[in-house]
Task: inverse folding
C-alpha cells in the first residue's frame, strides 16, 4: 500500500506517455529524462493527496493506491524532467563555487624585465610557477597570478580574503610592498588559516619576516656556479609525495645558518657542490605552523636558473599548496 508521506523512486524510463490514439509512445521526453545519468529520481506524492484530505482513512488509503499508480501525462513528464535537470545544473554550479579553492602566485615583476632573467622567465616567475600548478585544476583549484605592478599591489581585499594559499617571490622590491598589505597577510595566516609559501629570495620579504618574527637572513649569498643535490629527508611528508632526490646543475648558494625559528619539519635538505669540488649542506625546504596557518619556505629559485620549470620542483609546489591548505 502506498504511503502518502513517503518519497518514491521514479525511473524515468518507466513513465508511460501516450499519444492521442492511446498508444504508448515514450518519445524524446523520456530519452532526455533517461539520459540524466544520476541516482533514481525521487518526488513526493503527498501533495497529490491534499484534495483528498476530506476523505476518511479507508477512502484515503484507496485513493493513495490509485494516485501512486497513476500515469503521468506527457506534459507532466516534460515538466518533471525540466525541473529536475534545472535543479541539477544549479546544484552542481553551487557545489563548484562552494568547494573551489584559490591559490595566488605573487611576484614583484622584475624577472621578466632584467636582461639576465628575462630570457629564462619572459612572462615572469609567477607565470612559470602558476603553469606548474596546473594539476591542481582537476581538484577544483583556481590558480591566479598577481604582481606588485597590479592595482592594490596585486592583492585587493576581496582577493586576499578568498585566497587559500599565497605563493610569494620577490627579490629587489621588498621595500615597496606596503606595510598595510603585510599586516593583512599576517592576519590571514595567523588568524584565518591561509597558507603561505615563500621561495628563494622571498626569505627577505616583509611578509615572511613578519610571519616568522626573525631576520630570515642567510650567512651568505653566492652565485658562483655551484650545483646542488636536493635530498628528500622526510619521504612520508606530504610535500615530498612523488618526489625523489634530484640535482640542480646551477644554483645561487645560500649558506647556513638561516636565521629563522626552529622549523617543525625540514622535508628537504641539500648538498651544494662548489666550483672547487667541496661540499656544503643546507636546508632546502622548511615548514612551520604560524597561528592557524601553515608556512613553507623553498630555498632554490634564483631568477637566472630554470628551477620553476623542472618537474621535481613543480611537484614540490603542487604538494606544498595542498599541505599549506590543509
Result:
Amino acid at each position: 500500500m502506498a504511503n502518502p508521506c513517503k518519497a518514491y523512486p521514479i525511473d524515468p524510463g518507466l513513465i508511460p506517455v501516450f499519444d492521442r490514439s492511446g498508444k504508448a509512445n515514450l518519445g524524446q521526453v523520456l530519452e532526455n529524462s533517461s539520459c540524466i545519468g544520476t541516482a533514481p529520481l525521487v518526488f513526493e506524492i503527498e501533495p497529490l493527496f491534499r484534495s483528498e484530505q476530506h476523505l476518511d482513512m479507508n477512502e484515503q488509503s484507496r485513493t493513495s493506491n490509485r494516485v501512486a499508480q497513476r500515469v503521468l501525462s506527457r506534459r507532466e513528464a516534460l515538466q518533471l524532467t525540466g525541473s529536475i535537470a534545472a535543479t541539477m545544473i544549479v546544484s552542481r554550479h553551487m557545489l563548484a563555487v562552494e568547494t573551489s579553492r584559490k591559490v595566488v602566485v605573487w611576484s614583484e615583476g622584475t624577472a621578466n624585465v632584467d636582461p639576465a632573467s628575462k630570457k629564462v622567465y619572459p612572462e615572469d616567475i609567477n607565470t612559470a610557477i602558476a603553469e606548474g600548478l596546473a594539476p591542481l585544476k582537476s581538484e577544483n583549484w583556481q590558480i591566479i597570478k598577481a604582481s606588485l605592478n597590479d592595482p592594490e599591489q596585486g592583492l585587493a581585499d576581496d582577493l586576499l580574503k578568498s585566497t587559500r594559499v599565497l605563493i610569494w617571490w620577490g627579490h629587489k622590491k621588498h621595500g615597496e610592498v606596503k606595510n598595510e598589505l603585510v599586516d593583512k597577510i599576517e592576519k590571514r595566516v595567523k588568524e584565518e588559516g591561509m597558507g603561505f609559501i615563500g621561495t628563494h629570495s622571498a626569505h627577505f620579504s616583509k611578509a615572511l619576516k613578519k610571519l616568522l618574527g626573525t631576520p630570515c637572513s642567510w650567512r651568505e649569498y653566492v652565485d658562483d656556479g655551484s650545483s646542488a643535490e636536493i635530498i628528500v629527508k622526510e619521504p612520508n611528508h606530504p610535500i615530498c609525495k612523488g618526489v625523489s632526490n634530484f640535482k640542480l646543475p646551477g644554483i645561487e648558494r645560500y649558506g647556513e645558518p638561516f636565521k629563522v625559528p626552529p622549523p617543525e619539519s625540514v622535508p628537504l635538505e641539500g648538498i651544494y657542490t662548489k666550483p672547487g669540488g667541496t661540499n656544503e649542506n643546507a636546508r632546502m625546504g622548511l615548514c612551520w605552523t604560524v597561528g592557524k596557518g601553515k608556512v613553507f619556505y623553498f630555498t632554490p629559485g634564483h631568477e637566472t636558473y630554470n628551477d620553476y620549470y623542472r618537474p621535481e620542483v613543480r611537484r614540490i609546489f603542487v604538494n606544498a599548496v595542498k599541505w599549506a591548505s590543509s
Notes: The radius of gyration is 30 Å. The chain has two domains: 7-96, 100-325. The domain at 100-325 is CATH 3.40.50.880 (Rossmann fold).
